[in-house]
Structure formats: structure tokens, C-alpha cells
Amino acid sequence: MIDIVIDITLLTFLAITAVAIVRITNLFAIIMLFGIFSFLSATMFVVMDAVDVAFTEAAVGAGISTVLMLATIALTKDQNEKQSVGRISWLPLAVVTLTGTALVYGTLDIPAFGDPEAPAQKHVAPYYIERSVPETGVPNIVTAVLASYRGFDTLGEVFVIFTAGIAVLLLIGDKRRKSTPGRNEGGENDA
Amino acid sequence: MTHNLILRLVSKTVIPLIIVFALYVQFHGDFGPGGGFQAGVILGSSIILYALVFGLDAAEKVFPSTILRLLASLGVLLYAGVGVVTLYLDGNYLEYTVLADTQIAGQHLGILLVELGVGIAVFAVMLIIFFAFAGRGRP
Question: pTM of the full predicted structure?
């Protein structure tokens, strides 16, 4: 019972935050609201007993993303979003309403939350729950699955993060290269 | 933000605690929520807080970009290297059981090393991305 009350409260706050993000034009306020949205999502995950996911959401979604967006906004001159005033665009509204209705209709067939008979719980989950402690000795099943049973996937994830770092470095990192003596001399000669 | 006394004092107190908490999340990930990914992000955020309060140059003195690049590669190599070691010990790739005498000990060692690799890589990449973004504001 108490879970339902907490869920409804959190979902209401999420909806209010989402509407506020759409309505507000100050980019700084929007970034702060994004952080609040992430924290609320993290709390939702805690209520659903997915503590590891909540942890990541709070650290990455609310922490690092907010800082990165703030770092970006510090570089922009205009901190206000250009607001388009005027008529309601009916086509996007219709598309969004239709998609939303279809998604809600889709949830009607989904098994109830935590249903032990759900197909997702019947596949490999029983094996992990029964065997992960005797096989790996790690009490946290999430860690056992991530690092041992699904070690290949996690290796791939680490490579994705590594690639992201390389991409950022290639695109906007390393300003020193421009100021190396060789380049500068070349530029001056050209000029 | 360099003139804000309260911010400087509070962050000086908080940063060591964040680092200790990151280490706890890293090495306690087997038993509670957490693991390399979260620990890397938390450790990175402590340095980002330092950079926000004490300036980017001070933070880059602590972790120069060369070291960060080495750390990012080291993390990935540590993870992939564990797999290569298990290959040499007549196991499958990333089959930690062969790392030690018993299966439990092998799995423990393997998961610890792999999570450490994840933590180092995530920490370094987070800082690389932050420094790249924040560094563009410099004249």
C-alpha cells in the first residue's frame, strides 16, 4: 500500500518536473530540473528495489550529466531559449497523443510488476538466483551477473566508454596542439 | 568561484569523504550495491568538484591529461588482460575460475580485477570528457 502512495507521489513529481522543463525558457533552470528529474527517477528505482540502477542514475544522470551541461552552458552566450510564440501545432500533438495511447494500450498486456510467472523471470533469472552464490561466492547477484556471467557484455560497455572518451578528445580535446611552436610558426609564415 | 570561502572550506572537507566512499563502492560492490562503474563516476565527481571550486588548472595539475589517457587505456587493458591471462591458464576468455585454486577464489579475484579495470577506465574517461568540455572556456 505504502509503495503505491510513494509511486504515485513520485510519478506526480516527475510529471510536474517534465512540464516545468518544457515551459521554462531559462536554460540554467532547465539543467537544474533535469538533475531533479534524474534524482526522482533514481528514487523510483529504489522503490522498485533496483538499487544498483538507482545508484548509477543518481551518479551519472544527476551528477555528471548536470556538470557537463553546466560546463556547456558556461560557453554559450545566451542563457535563454528562443521561445516560439503562437499557434498550437496540431500534427505533433496528434502524433504524441497517438503514440502515448498505443504505449498505454501496450502496458495492459504486460505482467504485473514482480510477477514470478512473467516470461522475463522464467528465462535465466532462476539460474542466477540459485547458482550465483555457490558458483561465484558473490552475494550481490547484480555484480555476479555483470562481472562474471555477462563479462563479455561488460567488457563491451567499457570499450564503449573508452571510445566515447577518444571521440570527445578527437573532437574538442587537446587544445595544446594548436599552440605548439611548429604550427604557430607555420601560421605566421602563411600570414 | 575562487573567492568563495564557505565553498572552499566545505569542499575541502567533503572531497576526501567522497574519495573514501568511492573506494568503498568499488571494493564493496561484491556485497552491496555498487561496482566499478559507479565508483569511477563518484571518484571522478570528487575531482570535478575540486576543479569547479579551485579552478581547472589546479585540477589538471593533479591529473594531467597524459596520465588520464594512460589510466583510461590501463583500465580497458586490465579488463581485457584478465581475459588473456585466463586463456593462458587453459580456460576460456574471461573464465575466472582458472585464476586460483578453487572456483570461488578464482571468481573473486577475477571479479575484483575486472571491476577495478571498469572503475579506472570510467574515472579517467569522465575526467577526460569534463576537462575537454570545461577547457574550451579558456581563452
Answer: 0.84
